[in-house]
């Protein structure tokens, strides 16, 4: 066992032997509450654990529980000077955390479910240990947010940013290149800033490190924010430099050799180099004395603001019953809302569109949007007298939830694990979500997505989620319809022209979707 680990274990064991009766009872109640929460919300914790282990973007989270234990161990010599006591106003914090979980459960938004599950663990601490102990644990409690696997939503933005940095450096180094979205064409070949090369996993890990280091190594708030800013900017810039290095090397040694070397370097080796660079740059500015306590128990004990909000509860049983009641209410609310399903027709068909006729669907590269959990899916092709072709995809859902999310990850216009790659945002189409895709390096496609729920017509997944949440909170049943209009873009710009002409022929899109799917 390493000396540091042995010292931490010895400290915990010795501390447990000298705990006061108040601390013994408080920790026993907190442990029992945490065990119940972990069991009741086991599916959410299991889903998070799978993401930590299976998805490289979140592998660093495996270390977060150990870091949290270390942060508590740092603070323990001062914490044990405080007296834990139940704090019933903390039930409002717990209720807020439970409500976040409910919102995630009724909308199918895993991020909200998981954030709520983590927040409930954190919120149980002030309820059962009191406001003063929680003040001493404020940073570890907030740092628990890094247990939530979040960040995949930044992939497309980071792909674009990395591509822009890369093309700028490529031109600066004298290499002729043309950029189209996240694809860069050079004399050595066509390069894609793929999702795996977006740098999102390093940005998330560096952010977690920066927040930790800012608390542990700095006292000045300006230096803390400076450290966090460096951990946000440096990995993005470094990732752009790495991508440029691959392109530059490919001009000399060929694409295969350069890509092979990049696959070796691009991993935790790259992260370690960037991390070392940031630490060395920040080392000179560390301003926390080595032997200074992380917190001051006496200052917490005499803090006027804590005295004003401290309201102790004489009955631990009452606050435990309050926690149990909130957990039961959250589960019951989510269960009831999840059973809501709207009536949908037994069959739907693609309608006649004035000026357009149905033709065989024969794409150059197969394209079929993903709509898991939908009761109906239709895909067909229309053509007008000018020879313009538009592909129409329709999906109808009786409800939204786990396994049936119209705008969920892997759903929609971009086929997962296919020849298609996201290229860039497309031209604007009213409220629709416009995207450009590329397959096999030379086949381009434009796809525009709209969601329909009640009176909502939008391409925004966030707006759809809000509409679904409002429906479930009010126990209101409404079906969801997804329509994707798409066309192959050859010559470039023809797809946007064809889709606009088709949209004009359908009339107002919302009522057209309603008539086609018979949901209103």
UniProtKB/TrEMBL annotation:
Any Pfam family: DUF3485
Membrane-traversing stretches: 22-43, 55-73, 85-106, 118-146, 200-218, 225-245, 265-286, 318-335
Signal peptide positions (record): none
Main location: membrane
Domain Methanolan biosynthesis EpsI: 323-509
Record membrane topology: Multi-pass membrane protein
Keyword annotations from UniProtKB, A to Z: Cell membrane, Hydrolase, Membrane, Protease, Transmembrane, Transmembrane helix
Alphabetized InterPro entries for the sequence: EpsH-like (IPR013426), Exo/Archaeosortase_dom (IPR026392), Exosortase (IPR019127), Exosortase-1 (IPR017540), Methanolan_biosynth_EpsI (IPR014263)
Annotated organism of origin: Novosphingobium indicum
Domain of life the protein comes from: Bacteria
Protein's name in the database: Methanolan biosynthesis EpsI domain-containing protein
Localization, UniProt: Cell membrane
């Amino acid at each position: 066992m390493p000396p540091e680990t042995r010292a931490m274990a010895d400290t915990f064991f010795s501390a447990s032997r000298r705990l006061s009766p108040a601390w013994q009872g408080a920790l026993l109640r907190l442990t029992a509450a945490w065990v119940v929460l972990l069991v009741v919300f086991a599916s959410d914790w299991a889903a998070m654990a799978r993401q930590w282990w299976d998805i490289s973007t979140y592998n660093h989270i495996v270390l977060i529980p150990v870091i949290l234990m270390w942060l508590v161990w740092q603070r323990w010599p001062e914490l044990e000077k405080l007296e834990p006591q139940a704090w019933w106003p903390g039930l409002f914090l717990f209720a807020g955390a439970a409500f976040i979980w409910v919102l995630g459960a009724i909308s199918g938004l895993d991020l909200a479910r998981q954030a709520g599950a983590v927040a409930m663990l954190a919120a149980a601490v002030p309820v059962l240990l009191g406001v003063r102990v929680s003040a001493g644990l404020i940073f570890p409690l907030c740092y628990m947010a890094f247990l939530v696997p979040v960040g995949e939503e930044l992939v497309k933005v980071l792909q674009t940013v990395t591509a822009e940095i890369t093309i700028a450096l490529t031109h600066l180094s004298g290499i002729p290149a043309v950029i189209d979205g996240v694809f860069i064409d050079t004399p050595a070949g066509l390069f894609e800033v793929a999702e795996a090369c977006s740098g999102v996993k390093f940005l998330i890990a560096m952010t977690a490190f920066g927040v930790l280091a800012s608390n542990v190594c700095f006292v000045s708030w300006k230096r803390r924010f400076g450290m966090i800013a460096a951990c946000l900017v440096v990995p993005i810039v470094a990732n752009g430099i790495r991508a440029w290095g691959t392109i530059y090397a490919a001009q000399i040694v060929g694409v295969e050799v350069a890509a092979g070397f990049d696959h070796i370097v691009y991993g935790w080796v790259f992260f370690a180099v960037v991390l070392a660079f940031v630490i060395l740059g920040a080392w000179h500015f560390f301003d926390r004395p080595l032997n200074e306590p992380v917190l001051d128990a006496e200052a917490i004990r005499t803090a006027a603001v804590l005295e004003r909000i401290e309201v102790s509860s004489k009955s631990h049983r009452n606050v435990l019953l309050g926690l149990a009641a909130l957990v039961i209410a959250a589960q019951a609310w989510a269960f009831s809302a999840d059973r809501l399903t709207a009536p949908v027709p037994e069959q739907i068909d693609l309608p006649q569109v004035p000026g357009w006729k149905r033709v065989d669907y024969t794409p150059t590269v197969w394209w079929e949007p993903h709509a898991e959990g939908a009761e109906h899916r239709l895909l067909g092709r229309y053509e007008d007298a000018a020879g313009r072709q538009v592909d129409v995809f329709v999906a109808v859902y009786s409800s939204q939830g786990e396994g049936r999310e119209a705008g969920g990850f892997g759903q929609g216009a971009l086929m997962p694990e296919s020849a298609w790659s996201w290229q860039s945002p497309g031209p604007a189409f009213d409220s629709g979500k416009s995207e450009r895709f590329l397959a096999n390096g030379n086949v381009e496609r434009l796809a525009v997505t709209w969601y329909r729920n009640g009176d909502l017509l939008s391409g925004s997944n966030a707006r759809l989620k809000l509409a679904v949440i409002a429906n479930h909170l009010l126990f209101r049943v409404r079906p969801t319809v997804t329509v994707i209009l798409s066309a192959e873009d050859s010559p470039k710009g023809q797809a946007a022209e064809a889709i606009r002409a088709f949209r004009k022929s359908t009339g107002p899109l919302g009522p057209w979707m309603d008539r086609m799917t018979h949901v209103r």
